[in-house]
Write a structure and sequence with these properties.
95 residues; mainly alpha; two-stranded antiparallel ribbon; 3 helices; flat
Length: 95
């Protein structure tokens, strides 16, 4: 895959980065270099390699997966402009 000047300009615009027309060739070249590195990563054989969470072996902390209401109903509703019977009250929009 190769990035042309038009694509580099579009990526810069999407990223909200102002790039002068004179700098677009250098930016496109950088994008192409990065894509080259990504293609090299695709060539690495990772069969049998387990994913790591850290460079040192450790187990992730786990907690019991149970559903609760968070016990913060009053705190959550304290900022509501209108709350009734423990719920947000909103204007009726459907007849």
């Amino acid at each position: 895959m190769s990035i042309d000047l038009e694509t580099a300009a579009r990526v810069a615009k999407l990223a909200r980065i102002r790039v002068d027309e004179d700098d677009l060739p250098a930016l496109a070249n950088e994008f192409n270099t990065i894509l080259g590195f990504i293609e090299q990563l695709g060539e690495v054989d990772v069969d049998g390699v387990e994913p790591m969470t850290s460079v040192t072996p450790m187990r992730l902390k786990r907690r019991e997966d149970k559903v609760t209401d968070g016990h913060q109903q009053k705190k959550v509703l304290s900022n509501a402009p209108d709350a009734r019977e423990g719920f947000f009250a909103v204007p009726k929009v459907v007849e």
